[in-house]
Amino acid sequence: MNTTETLIDNLTEELKPRKKLAHPLARALPWMMVAMAYVAGIVNYLGVRPDFAAMLQDSIFLMDTGLMAAVSISAALSAAWLCVPDMRGVKWLVAVPFTLLATFFAWCAIVSHVDGFSMPDMHWDHCFNDAMMMGFLPAAAIMFLTLRGATTKPLTMSLMSVLSVAGLGYVGLRFTCMMDTIGHAGMYHLLPFVVFGALLGAAARFVYRW
C-alpha cells in the first residue's frame, strides 16, 4: 500500500493545474477576425488589383476564391476542435476542408482543360514574397492557438493549420495579383504554403506533444 501511494505521489508531484480550454468556436473566431484583418491590411498595403471591380463579376474568380475561403474557415474550425483529444465528438469536421480542397483542385483541372495550362517564368520578387508576408502573422497566431490544446492527431492538426493559412493567403494574393493562370496560382499562390506545410508536417510529432 505504501509503495502504491509513493508511486502516485511521484507521478503527480510535478502536475500543475491547467486552465480549461474555452469552447473551440470561441477560440477559432478571434483567430479568423485577426487573420482576416491582417490579410486585408496587407492587401491594402500592396494595392488591390486595378481590375478588382470587374473580377467581382467573373465566375471563375468568385469560384476559386470562394472555395479557398471556405477551406480556410473550415480548416481553422477543425484545428480548434482538434485541440480537444476527442474533438467533442465531431470528428467528421475534418472531412469538410478536405472535401472543399478536393473540389477546388477539380475546379482548377476543369479551368485548365478549358483555358489551357501554362507555367509562368520563374521570379521570386512578387507573389512569393507577398505570400510570406500574408502568411506570417496568421501562421504564428494559429500555432499559438493550437499549441495550447492537447491533440491526439498531430499530422492532421498540422495540415489543418496550414490549410487555414494557405486558403486565406491565396484569397489575399488573388485580390492583389492580376495573373490569373492556373500555373501562376499553383507556383506562387500555393507553393509557399505547401513548403511551410511540409516543414510543419515533418516536425508535427515534436511540435504537438503533451
User: What series of H and E elements makes up the topology?
Assistant: HHHHHHHHH
Radius of gyration: 20 Å
The overall strand count is 0
Provide the structure class: mainly alpha
Word description of this protein:
By secondary structure, the protein is mostly helical. It has helices at residues 2-12, 24-46, 52-55, 59-82, 95-115, 127-147, 154-176, 182-202, 204-207. The protein is built from nine helices and no strands. The longest helix has 24 residues, at 59-82. The model has no long low-confidence stretch (mean pLDDT 81).
What's the topology here?
Layout (H helix, E strand, L loop, with lengths): L1 H11 L11 H23 L5 H4 L3 H24 L12 H21 L11 H21 L6 H23 L5 H21 L1 H4 L3
Features:
mainly alpha, 9 helices, single chain, 210 residues
Task: Give a quick rundown of the structure.
The chain has 210 residues and is mostly helical. Helix content is 72%, strand content 0%.
